[in-house]
Amino acid sequence: MTMHFSVLASGSTGNAFFVETEDQSFLVDAGLSGKALEALFQDIGRDMSKLSGILVTHEHSDHIKGLGVVARKHKLPIYANAKTWSAMERSIGEISVEQKFTFEMEQVKTFGSLNIESFGVSHDAAEPMFYVFHHEDKKLVVITDTGYVSDRMKGIISNADAYVFESNHDVSMLRMGKYPWSIKRRILSDVGHVCNEDAALAMSEVAGDKTKRIYLAHLSLDNNMKDLARMSVEQTLKTKGIIVGEQFSLYDTDPKKPTELVTL
């Protein structure tokens, strides 16, 4: 009995994550066009019409762009908390009552062999939350779009087998970049995004004996680079006595290409 997952797409241009067990499969967010999402599913050899449902983290467009289209096409259930439903309904179009489900923050829902736990993050959305997937003795965490990682979050996500972890920006690139100061201030705030170094500090506190894989996710297109993110995270972890490759490995994600479908 195993759990598989792939980061289908991750970045400021669109986000989607796939997880499955022997009897369940879910898409977390649908932040690309319906056509792009269908292509990503083909790339990993999976059929979107067979999904058990779609889990929504929050209403920003890079997380819900294709949500309405694919949900209507494949008649898929959508799970989101009440405030997120209210915030995104205009953007995703009409969804039948039979497809609308509420999944509130700090809940655990059981779908066959898969237990899914929701937890709140600090981001400038209506009520943003992410998910922990529990299957047998395996634990998988998805956490992006948060201005910081609180002690409460750390307690919930600690010692997972794998993480999809935000490493959004390099602070110097952001400060010197082309964005207006109002946007820079938002990104740097407690309701913005986690930078490379802060992500690594949080990783150093939550990674445990079980942790084997950490995926660097939601990289800014303008204010980060894969090599820079990896280098910054590795260097910061080293200051905490963690040598990447010994306890766990780091993996890149991409805004257009899925990661390998991995078995936990």
Automatic annotation (TrEMBL):
InterPro entries: Metallo-B-lactamas, RibonucZ/Hydroxyglut_hydro, WalJ/YycJ, WalJ/YycJ-like. Residues 13-191 form the Metallo-beta-lactamase domain. This is MBL fold metallo-hydrolase. It comes from Peribacillus butanolivorans.
